[in-house]
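Work package 3, deliverable 3.1, input record:
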Amino acid sequence: MYSAAMSTQERLIESTRELLWERGYVGTSPKAILERAGAGQGSMYHHFKGKPDLALAAIRRTAEELLASAEAVLDSPGTPYERIAAYLRRERDVLRGCPVGRLTMDPDVMADPDLRAPVDATLASIRARIAEIVELGKEQGQFASTLDAGEIASAVVATVQGGYVLARASGSPDAFDAGVRGLLALLAPPRR
Amino acid sequence: MYSAAMSTQERLIESTRELLWERGYVGTSPKAILERAGAGQGSMYHHFKGKPDLALAAIRRTAEELLASAEAVLDSPGTPYERIAAYLRRERDVLRGCPVGRLTMDPDVMADPDLRAPVDATLASIRARIAEIVELGKEQGQFASTLDAGEIASAVVATVQGGYVLARASGSPDAFDAGVRGLLALLAPPRR
DNA sequence: GTCTATATACCGATAGAC
DNA sequence: GTCTATCGGTATATAGAC
């Protein structure tokens, strides 16, 4: 349930975002969305063409927010290593998983080009942004010049996405943190 | 459809394993299982108490097979680095995702302790096995003694699990391979 | 062991009153 | 814009014939 100040359309999008995060697309029914939003069937089909259309609005917003917050952390001041460390260590609701990454396991999302596009674009943008930072670190001599920036960026994002899997499997955020620490130890510039 | 040599019970388990991999628990209906197995309702409820019971048999078998094949690769001959590289590089149906890891995104699996246990146990065992190998590498001087074996193991498994996410998002195995190469570059012993 | 018939609830969507 | 009524189809399970 949401504040009465939020429009019905907004409440529908927000409740869909929550349910997609918790249960995925296949596991989210219009009925559940409506109950959480405190709306009736008519409202949903007035504002949206159907479940896929509403899900698209929800996914787009979630993708935008994730990208914006990730870029904010990556653009924080510091050395390239520190900026990547800040991204890896930033506060996360680890056991809930990644609201964007989890959609890749949803066959109905992956099968629909419209639903899939924001997921693809978000992860690609974050990888590209991290690759730029690694490249900068190579130029500054903080990272070995032999490293491939795109590969390191992929490893960084994969460690985060896989960390969610390990954490959820074990029921504890510890596994996520362990993976992050392991990667950072490998990435750390040699002390002098 | 399966060979007539396979019992109905076996066909039910095998078709459930496939569907859990493709669509997850929530997205897999008894009807779909029965169609793929070429069996009727009666057979399923004769051999299994219901959907959760059949899913448990399927998940247990998938978990056993994954663990066995992972251990086989990890125990192949070579230096610790080579054994971990063999694990990271082993042939995978990348775009299908991990049949065990994907279950962590299924709320109904995570909510049922019986269904969840094999998922947790499998990933924990693989992490522990890799940690042993890292420890061996530290003793042999191939890895820096400052590294934490458990953390490196977590990073290795997270890179694999997250690599599936990146690959599925982008629709190409390239992102998986990039992450693996990135991690291996960071893990590689210094050349002499 | 396997089949068909049946049951209750929910799915996603539409119609039309207010 | 929002509501309720209704729809055909499916989800999961049970009953009982063969």
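The mean pLDDT of chain A is 96.
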